Amino acid sequence: MSNYKDKVIWITGASSGIGEALALQFAKQEARLILSARREEELKRVGALTKLPDLDLLILPFDLSDTSKATALAAQVMNKFGRIDILINNGGQSQRAEALETDEATERKLMEVNYFSIINITKAVLPYMIRNKCGKIVVISSVVGKFGFYLRSSYSAAKHALHGYFESLRLEIEKNGIHILMVCPGKIKTNVSVNAVGEKGKTHNVMDESHKNAMSAEECARQIMNGINNNQEEIFVGGKELAMLRIRRFFPNLFSKMIRKQNPF
User: Fold this and answer.
1) pLDDT at residue 201, rounded to an integer
2) Is 260 a domain residue?
3) Torsion of CA 162, 62, 197, 140, to 10 degrees
4) Residue 79 lies in a domain
5) Residue 58 within any structural domain of the chain
6) How wide is the angle at C-alpha 193 spanned by C-alphas 188 and 194, nearest 5°?
7) With contact defined as beta carbons under 8 Å apart, do 86 and 139 qualify?
8) What is the CATH number of the domain that holds 29?
9) pTM beyond 0.90, yes or no
């Protein structure tokens, strides 16, 4: 029997990459989906691929750089489905620029998209989950939420902040039957580097070499679903790059030397 049959699942960043892969795999298990991202046409494309009937699908486009209407968006979901079982905060934007070359406006946008938007959407959904005494919140962070890296200063800062916030929130709301899963992907074959913001807010527009032969978005989605199933609090998804997490923990001096030799692309 499907673990997700008739579950109402809201996915942000659902127009491509990990979000799209999650949508398609949840649809195979007969979940009911809300798909959000900026690009409405791409959301409709993914929605068509799910082959879900209109009764079980809601296309809800919005821009993560402005989530001032998050409460109204959550109300739209509730008006259609009556509940939200799982919220997957997947949307975000990476960075490919040195800290000194990144202007304040770009830094603030990166924090808005990768941190504040996730907080706003989560707080809009939580009252409904608390009322139902159940729910799951999934936050897609990154391995750079655990350590800093070249050309990722503001992006890494936002991901670090997510861990502090949601680890605190977990302790406060678990009494209401709500579970939080932090997901830290390494290198996944998506357009995350293509869509990354560069100097002065320009789009990087290049797929990094390290991502071309990385883990597929489909395999990443499968591992995320396993993490949800198993009520895990934190999972790491990716390839050999995840070894850096263990090296940093047990051999910090070696990590310090190794990280300086890594290619930022």
Assistant:
1) 80
2) no
3) 30
4) yes
5) yes
6) 120
7) no
8) 3.40.50.720
9) yes
Which DSSP letter does residue 137 get? E
Q: Does the pLDDT of residue 213 top 80, yes or no?
A: yes
Q: What range does the domain containing 125 cover?
A: 8-240
pLDDT band at residue 253 using 50, 70 and 90 as cut-offs? very high
Active site residues: 155
How many domains does the chain fold into? Answer: 1
Summarize pLDDT for 8-39 with one digit per residue, the tens: 999 999 999 999 999 999 999 999 999 999 99
Q: Is the per-residue pLDDT at 44 higher than 90?
A: yes
How far apart CA 124 and CA 152 sit, in angstroms, is 29
Residue 1: band (very low, low, confident or very high) from pLDDT cuts 50, 70, 90: very low
Q: What's the CA gap between 10 and 32, in Å, rounded?
A: 9
* Look-up of token digits 């609090």: 233
CA–centroid distance for 230 within its chain: 18
Task: Give a yes or no: residue 29 inside a domain.
Answer: yes
